[in-house]
Write a structure and sequence with these properties.
alpha/beta, Rossmann fold, 4-stranded antiparallel beta sheet, 10 strands, binds adenosine-5'-triphosphate, transport, BCAA_Transport_ATP-bd_LivF, amino-acid transport, P-loop_NTPase, Urea ABC transporter ATP-binding subunit UrtE
Length: 230
């Protein structure tokens, strides 16, 4: 579904992503794990087209995305929830979700399915986004991304700054989305327990290189923890 190969990305003269390659299959949840500064956000920003890559290919469902602007990548089936969520705090919950419709080609109203996935957003639809808790804002950011009916959802560190009980809820929501839709999820993470709840496959990035790739079934949690600790 999403095939990335030979990806190289630089900030100025300094290359920070070196020959990264991975494939996320249809209906798979792939977790990209790594400590701060290892390159997760840079990879995600490159996939959605905020950053340019120096080399490599990004192919979504057979379509090469290299060179396309972000909105064309969204139209092709990619959706992105950035680190820090980036919701519009002065807009209501409903208006935030409707903002996602602007990039959706087929739809003019928020599908009911979105509110059945996120009942809390239904209750709070007239509240300002800025008045929601961190976990609710994360749900809002995911809901906004889903209205474009993406084939691949990119989630950059969805648990950052969120308390443990709510992290469990977010994992539950992602698993529900997987059951309700044909969707591939690529999620960057540092929290192994969350990843083990949601991912089918785990990869580890270190200093811009993919250094580990394993199915969740039978993965060695201690080994992954060692990659994640300083
Ligand atoms: N705008 C920038 N200009 C120059 N270097 C940058 C810039 N953004 C990130 N970097 C560098 O690129 C490398 C990868 O950073 P990146 O933010 O992708 O890591 P990350 O794994 O997402 O970490 P975090 O979890 O802290 O966001 C780091 O060495 C970082 O210092």
């Amino acid at each position: 579904m999403l095939e990335v190969s030979g990806l190289k990305v630089s900030y100025g003269q300094s290359e920070v992503i070196h020959d990264v390659a991975f494939t996320a299959h249809k209906n798979e949840t792939l977790a990209i794990m790594g400590r701060n500064g290892m390159g997760k956000t840079t990879v995600f920003k490159t996939l959605i087209g905020i950053l340019k890559h120096n080399a490599g290919n990004i192919v979504l469902d057979g379509q090469e995305l290299t060179g396309l602007p972000s909105h064309a990548r969204v139209a092709a089936g990619l959706a992105y929830v950035p680190q820090g969520r980036m919701i519009f705090s002065h807009l209501t919950v409903l208006e935030n979700i409707q903002a996602g419709l602007e990039t959706a080609t087929q739809r003019s109203r928020v599908p009911d399915e979105i509110f059945s996935m996120f009942p809390v957003l239904q209750e709070m639809r007239h509240r300002k986004g800025g008045n929601l808790s961190g976990g609710q804002q994360q749900q809002l950011a995911i809901a906004r991304a889903l209205v474009s009916e993406p084939k691949v959802l990119l989630l950059d560190e969805p648990t950052e700054g969120i308390q443990p009980s709510i992290i469990k809820e977010i994992a539950h929501t992602l698993n529900e989305i997987q059951q309700m839709r044909d969707i591939t999820i690529v999620v960057s993470e540092q929290i192994l327990s969350f990843t083990l709840d949601v991912a089918d496959r785990l990869m580890v990035i270190e200093s811009g290189n993919m250094v580990h790739d394993v199915a969740r079934e039978g993965c060695d949690a201690e080994k992954i923890t060692a990659f994640l600790s300083v």
